[in-house]
Design a protein that fits this description.
Layout: H1 3-11, H2 18-25, H3 32-53, H4 58-64, H5 69-76, H6 84-93
Helix pairs in contact: 4-5
């Protein structure tokens, strides 16, 4: 059970289960906004894993992509959405595209 699920259960003490709460409120994980945010976080994790596998720091990757370290940090945190241009720059920077 996630931390968010635990908080939801604590706020709804009369509910017997998380499923009962979701049945009354609807499942927030089904909303387009939630799906988009989840994807951004997943892409961020992939970017971080690729950077680490390439043996680069955020600063080194930023220099190779002609951007700043805070931009890389926001990309890895899922705050900035990954675009095709960014993906292309990432592939070139870590040596997966020539």
């Amino acid at each position: 059970m996630s931390k968010g699920d635990m908080i939801m259960l604590m706020r709804n003490r009369n509910a017997k289960s998380l499923e009962e709460i979701r049945s009354h409120r609807g499942d927030p994980s089904a909303t387009p906004e939630y799906i988009e945010e989840r994807r951004a976080l997943q892409f961020g994790r992939v970017v971080r894993a690729l950077r680490r596998k390439a043996g680069l720091t955020q600063t080194e990757l930023a220099l190779r992509m002609d951007t700043t370290q805070p931009t890389i940090a926001r990309l890895e945190a899922g705050i900035i959405k990954l675009t095709f241009d960014t993906l292309d720059g990432l592939a070139t920077a870590i040596g997966k595209r020539k």
